[in-house]
Design a protein that fits this description.
CATH class of the largest domain: Alpha Beta
Number of domains: 2
Bound molecules: manganese (II) ion
Number of helices: 11
Helix content: 25-40%
Order of helices and strands: HEHEEEHEEHHHHHEEHEEHEEH
CATH topology of the largest domain: inorganic pyrophosphatase (n-terminal core)
Distance between the termini: 50 Å
Length: about 325
Amino acid sequence: MNKEGTMSHAYAQKFAENLSKIPNKVVLTSHLNPDGDGLGSMYAMGEALESIGKTVFYILQEPVQPYYNFLEIHNRLQYSLDELPENYGIISFDCGSIDRLSLPKEIIDNASILINLDHHLSNTNFGDINIVQIDEVSSTSVVFQCLKAVDIKVSKNMASNLYLGLVFDTGRFSYSPLPETFSFASELLALGADHWTVYSALYRHNDFDHYKTVADVTKSMTNMYDGQLVILDVGEDKKDRIILEEVEGLINRISNIAELEIVVAFIYESATATKLSFRSRGNFNVCDTATEFGGGGHKCASGATIQLPYDQARETVLASLAKNFI
Ligand SMILES: [Mn+2]
């Protein structure tokens, strides 16, 4: 039991038991193409660890979309370390496998401990310590329970960061209609999470041209199997005009088509690689499909990068998806 008199989750207890194993210097990171859940988790845990005297580095190997700049802590994000500390740990947030870690290899290889904190169904337990709970709606929810288990006070900024991950991963409270989702939101708002700042940053950052680009990309949409499978093509001619997170937003909206079961987006990456992104309405597990092609994710939202040219990737993946519809 913690101070509030509620039972702690087993994974949060595990975090509490292992807190002393976290070195004084710690690198916090997330997955490639970092999103609101990964960032919110890093920033909230970072502030918590600093409050107990740790030195924290926020490191990703690629820039993040500029609309996350609304968080002041975001200015501390680094893309490398000039000098590796002598003894440091890594905590990875929201990342399902080690090959998806958004860190230079040198930083991964020299860490004395790697802690993997996540909620992906496909998580490979790649850490020395794994705090993975697949029924949590966001990684920020895992972080929140861990902080409760160690009695670290959640500040207003931490609450906003945790809320960012919750809003992002639930698709603004659409995909996880569980009592826990709303209790978590309620607790965060009571702690001072700033709903409108988070909402505006995530959903009110588009410029005028964005809508014209999205309209153009949407035109390529096709369907099969009486509309149960919808396909979005972001080929070589379009890939520079739309960022990955916009494609994700677009397929979230496309997944609202009444008769749809699965939507898949093909995104040109290079002459020999194609990104895949899937959404399911719940009758099919698209985490399995993504895993088949070396990716992963959740039952209703997943992704992968397949080492095949665009047309060949498209053909291969559609052949695999066909199994669902016969
Ligand atoms: Mn997540």
